[in-house]
Structure formats: structure tokens, C-alpha cells
Amino acid sequence: MFPQVDTRVPTDVELEVRSHYAEMFPRGDRGFVPRIFGWAIDCFDGRYRDYQPIDARYHDLEHTLQGTLCMARLLGRWHDNGGSPSLTQQMVELGLLAILLHDTGYLKTRGDTEGTGAKYTLTHVSRSAEFASGLLGEQGYSDGQIRAVQHMIRCTGVNVDLNSIPFNSELERKVGFALGSADLIGQMAADDYIEKLPILYAEFAESARYNNGAPSAAAGFTSADDLIRKTPLFWEKYVIPKLNSDFQGVYRFLEIPYPGGPNYYVQRIEANIDRLRRLLADAAATSAAA
């Protein structure tokens, strides 16, 4: 079982990520995790170049920290259980950079005063990859390392064709799949995931308005209530198949014991889905009785 970590507190998440990194690479760069957390927090808090603090209400810093915590745990379990291919220090570092930067495409520059960063929902993956290129280039990363981070970020696209991503190695591809998996299950396992669904819909709706009704993530939903009602199907028909097929089941490294033991994240998500079903049933019963 993993310890409880408050993902609203960046230092708490950083401490656990630092612990997993140190366990994997005892002789690694002890300053690496604090350094990259500093970069990410500066970006989201409006202390990088001419970018404003994040104003997207769902895809905020906590959302990124939820995915980052899950990613560090997944990679740690992969390493501990001798997963194939074997993790290298460089690829783990690039994976952690990628998850921390994967939603920087929601950031707005200071001259961008219209709406919130949610208007970039349709393009946020490509914008995040571009943002990562600029930041990592300034920090002295090589072109190959930057491309690896960008390839991993692309794994988070809702309808991405993973076969179109020109990964440089099988290890890079699998770490990208770990990132895509952590992005999905990290947020869905949160205690307040259900309560945040109306905020997520508001982001989708803003994106649709900004893009003049172009197809967007909101296309399948008519309202926040509609999104909430369809969330159990989203888990069953989209997320589970994507985790098992597209991302080749790498989330299973989170099983304790591995393989075959309970998966902390899946248990928390299924508890959220069960709670949501009860809430929907109660609401339907109340409406019928009215």
C-alpha cells in the first residue's frame, strides 16, 4: 500500500518522488527531483518567462502532481520488480520531466487575456511539447533528450495514434505508456474526482466556444450532468481498454504484490465509480418521487 500524500502540497509530492528516485538510483543526482519540481512550480506559478500563473481550473498544478506521483510510483514498482525493458536513470529522469511538463500547454502568456488556458484543450498537447522544448533547451538538454520528452508528452493525447510517434527505443515507448497511464489513473483516483467533473466540463465547453464549435472533448457531452452520467462508461469503455491495450498494461506494475495483487489506483477509481453510481441512482429516485 502506498502512503497517503496530499497532492495539493507540492513539497509532499516531491518528497515521495525523491524517495522513489533514490531507491531506484542510489548513486543518482540527488538534486534532480528538487530541481525539476522547482522548474515546474515556477512555470505554473507564473515565474517563467512571460507566462501567467495557470488559470485552468481542472488542469492545474495539482492535476500535474497527481499524475507525477502516480508515475513515480509506477516506475519505482517497475524497477523493483525487474520489468522489461530495464529502466535507466536517464529515461526515468526524462519520464519525470515529461509528466511534470505534459500540461504546460494550458499556460497563457501575459498578453493573452481572453478566457482561461482551457481554451487550448484541443492544442494543449502540441503546445506542451513546444513549451518543453523551450524550457529544456535553456537547461542544456540535447535535441535527442528533448524529442524523447516530446514523444512521451504526445502519449497523453485523447485520440493519439501511438504508432505514429517516432520513439527512439522500446524503453522510451514504454515509459511514454507509463506516462499516459499515470495521467489517466492519477486524476481518476483522487478523492475529489467526482466533485471536479463539473469543472472539467466547463473547460471542455470553453474550448468549444473558443474554437467556434469545432469538434472537441466536449463533443460527446451536452452538459456537466451528462458528463457525470457518462463517466462510468468512460472508465469501462475508454480508460480500461486504453490501459490494457494501447498502453500495454504497464499500470499493472502498481499491483502489490506484483503480479496479480490489488492495484491501489484501480481500487480507488472503482470506489469513485461506485460512489458516482450510487449518487446517480439516488438522484434518479428523488426525481421519480418528486
Strand-helix topology:
Elements: H1 10-24, H2 32-44, H3 61-80, H4 89-101, H5 124-138, H6 143-154, H7 170-188, H8 193-210, H9 224-246, H10 264-289
Helix pairs in contact: 1-2, 1-3, 2-4, 3-4, 3-7, 4-6, 4-7, 5-6, 6-7, 7-9, 8-9, 9-10
What is this structure, in a nutshell?
The protein is mostly helical and 290 residues long. It has ten helices and no strands.
Describe the structure.
There is one protein chain. The chain has 290 residues and is an all-alpha fold. It has one domain: 3'5'-cyclic nucleotide phosphodiesterase, catalytic domain (Catalytic domain of cyclic nucleotide phosphodiesterase 4b2b), CATH 1.10.1300.10. 60% of the residues lie in helices and 0% in strands. It contains 10 helices and no strands. Helix 2 packs parallel to helix 4. The N and C termini lie far apart (44 Å).
Relevant terms:
290 residues
Gap from first CA to last CA: 44 Å
Which series of helices and strands comes N to C?
A: HHHHHHHHHH
CATH fold-level name: Catalytic domain of cyclic nucleotide phosphodiesterase 4b2b
Beta-strand portion reads under 5%
Whole-number total of structural domains:
1
CATH class: Mainly Alpha
Name of the CATH homologous superfamily: 3'5'-cyclic nucleotide phosphodiesterase, catalytic domain
Level-2 CATH architecture? Orthogonal Bundle
User: What is the radius of gyration?
Assistant: 19 Å
What's the number of extended β-strand segments?
A: 0
pLDDT under 50 segments (min length 5)?
A: none
Label the overall shape.
globular
The number of helices is 10
| Mean pLDDT over the residues | 95
Please state the structural category.
mainly alpha
Please describe the biggest sheet, giving its number of strands, its sense, and whether it closes into a barrel: none
